[in-house]
Amino acid sequence: MNRDSQLSTQALVFFLVRSAFTTVYITQPVLPVIENEFAVDARTASLSVAMVIFGIALANLPFGMDGPIRCACSAITREGEQKSPPAVTPTAATPGPAS
Questions:
Q1: 32 versus 53: which is more confidently predicted?
Q2: How far is it, in rounded angstroms, from Cα 71 to Cα 75?
């Protein structure tokens, strides 16, 4: 990766992170306006910020599910045959069955 490409990638990442934080707190400066317009208290108006964070949390759930799905899919070969799991052999440190 050359220097110019690396700088443009860093600038893009910086812009995206800045945009994400801006989106989270976009309604915070207008909370007093929301309170007056909708005749609600401060706690109810602040739910506008909480709902944005809740939406981000919900949107990230599929990314958390990718790990188990990828692990399950890697157990199947291209031909569709099931791979056998690796054999687990007990070691001296592994306790055996109770006698």
A1: 32
A2: 7
This prediction has a pTM of 0.45
Q: Provide the token pair at 62.
A: 């599929």
Residue extents of the structural domains in the chain:
3-74
Cross-strand bridge partners of residue 76: 82
Q: What is the pLDDT of residue 59?
A: 82
DSSP secondary structure string for all residues of 36-97: HHHT--HHHHTHHHHHHHHHHHHHHHHHHHHHHHHHHHHTB-TTSPBPPPPP----TTS---
**Which two structure tokens, joined as six digits, stand for 66?**
């990718």
